[in-house]
Amino acid sequence: MLDIGISKLMLVAGIALIVIGPERLPRVARMAGTLLGRAQRYVADVKAEVNRSIELEELNKVRREFETAARDVGQSVSRGLDEATGQVNAALGSGSDGHDEPAPTYEPYSWDSSPAVPGPVPVRKNWRIKRSATPQWYKQREGVRRHVQSGAARVARFRPPRRG
């Protein structure tokens, strides 16, 4: 690795001052700093890309292991289910009482796709329009407000009478 100390940096700066000149030295230093910053950003981007690719490979490896484990579990469960079904069918077949009808085979229960409990009721977006179609006599009987009232008017309307 390069062993650059303060004395060597001062020597390089002195030579640059002599060769480039004091008028152009700030511009050249600024350009050198910009190029150095770009190089550092490029190196950082390359490092980040390499790290991302390594992480992606690790994630793919874990995903493949998980898929194979899930496949193995599914196969073992289906194998066990097939064995149990075969044993049940064999037991039902051996216990026949001399009739020539074949023993019934039992298949796994298939669940209904319809839920037993209905889901949440969707919110009506235009409830004002649908509510206005309600007859006036029904609104009056149920006590539905038909006119907008201010808070003060509502208080005055329902204030108990004064005794006096």
UniProtKB/TrEMBL annotation:
Disordered: annotated segments: 73-123, 136-164
Membrane topology: Single-pass membrane protein
InterPro entries: TatA/B/E, TatB
The entry's keywords: Cell inner membrane, Cell membrane, Membrane, Protein transport, Translocation, Transmembrane, Transmembrane helix, Transport
Gene behind the chain: tatB
Record's subcellular location: Cell membrane; Membrane
Top-rank taxon: Bacteria
Main subcellular location: membrane
Organism: Sphaerotilus uruguayifluvii
Descriptive protein name: Sec-independent protein translocase protein TatB
Subunit structure: The Tat system comprises two distinct complexes: a TatABC complex, containing multiple copies of TatA, TatB and TatC subunits, and a separate TatA complex, containing only TatA subunits. Substrates initially bind to the TatABC complex, which probably triggers association of the separate TatA complex to form the active translocon.
Family listed: Belongs to the TatB family.
PANTHER family linked to this entry: SEC-INDEPENDENT PROTEIN TRANSLOCASE PROTEIN TATA, CHLOROPLASTIC
